[in-house]
User: Fold this.
Amino acid sequence: MNISSLYNLPLVVKIFITSYLVLIVAGLLLALWVVIESPILKSEKIDEQYPPEALAELKAATFYQNLKLAHVHHLGHIFMVFSLAGLYTFTREKNNIKTQVIVWTTIATLIHTLAFLIYSKILLIVFGSIYGALMCYMMIIILIDCFKPHKEL
Assistant:
């Protein structure tokens, strides 16, 4: 079977891909909800609640906990980016656009994850938004390529 685009795949594979994209969208929405509810965005300060000697220990423990969470968070993003970009590479999109989208998604994922460690609201919002927009763009292109026939010239 000659598969020159995702449109030529069997229907069951297209349904599988669509189901996978729905699950990724659900995951992105859950991640957005977690970020919106995070203390980083809410600017909750712990400085006023504890004496200075306990504050240093608390900050070290919090950083370690955030490091563990960022590690798991980043692994989840790596899985989503790798699998989605893998599907995206089989679309009819121009190769230079595919390359740019994948590279920028990688950069946005890295900086977005690092924003959790350095408590940067601006980096978290900007690169999280870029990441989400690029992921949505790839998913839309994948869906279009799955269900829209290619026009022959």
The chain has one domain: 6-147. The helical segments are 11-36, 39-42, 52-88, 95-118, 121-147. The radius of gyration is 20 Å.
